[in-house]
Amino acid sequence: MPRPILATVHADALRHNLHRLRAAAGDARIWAIVKANAYGHGIERVFEGLRSADGFALLDLSEAQRLRALDWRGPILLLEGVFEARDLELCSRLGLWHVIHCNEQIDMLAAHKTQLPQRVFLKMNSGMNRLGFKPERFRAAWTRLNALPQVDEISLMTHFSDADGLAGIAAQFKVFQAVTHDLPGERSLSNSAALLRHGEALAASSDWVRPGIGVYGSAADYPLHSAADWGLLPTLSLSAKLIGVQQLEAGDSVGYGSTFRAERAMRIGVVACGYADGYPRHCGTGAPVLVAGVRTQLVGRVSMDMLTVDLSPVPEAGMGSEVTLWGMAADGAVLPIDELAQAAGTISYELMCAVAARVPFAST
Hints:
CATH superfamily of the largest domain: Alanine racemase
Order of helices and strands: EHEHHEHEHEHEHEHEHEEEEEEEEEEHHE
Strand content: 15-25%
Strand order of the largest sheet: 8-7-6-5-4-3-2-9
Number of helices: 11
Number of domains: 2
CATH class of the largest domain: Alpha Beta
Radius of gyration: 23 Å
Helix content: 25-40%
């Protein structure tokens, strides 16, 4: 039999989360963000759960081709735009919309020979300081684009750097509004945190919203809020089974480096999951885990193919017992991915994207 580890994508949870985010979006349309192979879930595996979105947004042309191959005929947005001039040919052929964030991309458009003008989203750098035109250069970029016969409609967008934190969106939103108040075109402003935390303030100014992590059942502002607080369900579960059980006596150690020593007699379970599967190696004793739906903890170091867990709360557990590393157990118990991410000193996005290629996937 194959090694007992499995990543499961929950289509019903994707539908639920999209419905929840749509309720928060008011009249705005929703881009379902499927970059990074749908946050590690797999574009083909999430498509049915997300096909009620108004559009899909991503980075790679190959991912856009995969969506068109799934018979998606609606809008697809390239969030970083094109990377070289020849990409525009594929944009024309596939009907892709794309972001313009620098003068070089405008130059590419100006030189592009096409009979079909393209829909573009002009991006403002309102404070994130990654991509986009600074506010004082934004209108000049808009004027250049507006003069090009290669351009159809120009939408306006920015990205909030602190929507999930104390600083919030007010300063960046003020800048965006001041520069764009009299420019035509639809607006796209909100990521998951901005939509859920500041949606009312942005409602009148948002034609498109761009929820990413919220679609996948994680709270962008954890631990201030949990996914359950926002009414979101886990969309990806990583589960395995116990492949061994050891009886420890007081003083016995577990794993490399003997970083855990038993203070009393106890049983531990050996789980078919390690850092080669994408489980974070820097998790240590105390990281949460479910065994047969019961919460317990990791003990000792994570190794390449195995980790070990305390079976004290689950005395009936043994060979073959289900272990939920994150997500939903068979009995419906949930270990939020945000909790494990916090224990690992990272964020849920990284855990989702890090599931290794050797882990088989299933869909429900």
